[in-house]
Model the fold of this input.
Amino acid sequence: MADRLRSQAKLEQLQARYVGVGNAFTTKYEWMVNQHRDTLSSVVGHPPLLAYMATALGEPRVQVRKNLLEKMIMPCGPPPPSNQF
Done:
């Protein structure tokens, strides 16, 4: 029983620290947005990954970085309509 409570406490601590971990009320759309933003920020934050993408796309690194930062605003498109009235 103590292990279960300890695991639950650790999960709650992770959820408080990292938004992308989600919780029981996280929607699929929110989870996807968090994953996409995390991936995009990782590429922007690691120069070798950014250089690799720039080479693959055939564009300057500055342009690829700008495009990735713009994509972080709405990485998965507009949110789905809510069912709340």
In short: The chain has a mean pLDDT of 88. The first helix runs from residue 2 to 17.
